[in-house]
Amino acid sequence: AGVGTIVCMHMSEKHRKEAEKAHLNVVIAGHMASDSLGMNLFLDLLEERGIQIETCSGLYRVKRNSRKA
Question: Which of 9, 25, 46, 64 could lock onto 5 through a cystine, CB 3.0 to 4.6 A?
């Protein structure tokens, strides 16, 4: 058991070749997609604290399911 797929923003040719040797799948998600994923998780936490969120500059706001305590 282990890692079979790596999702990242950037990968050098050297690292791509190493991933290929290790039979790893690589998904290059791109800068905006990667930022949107991380930022949306953070923005969910801010909204839970009552902060109003306004998006701009290409950020797509996708609210995740509310966490249950």
Answer: 25
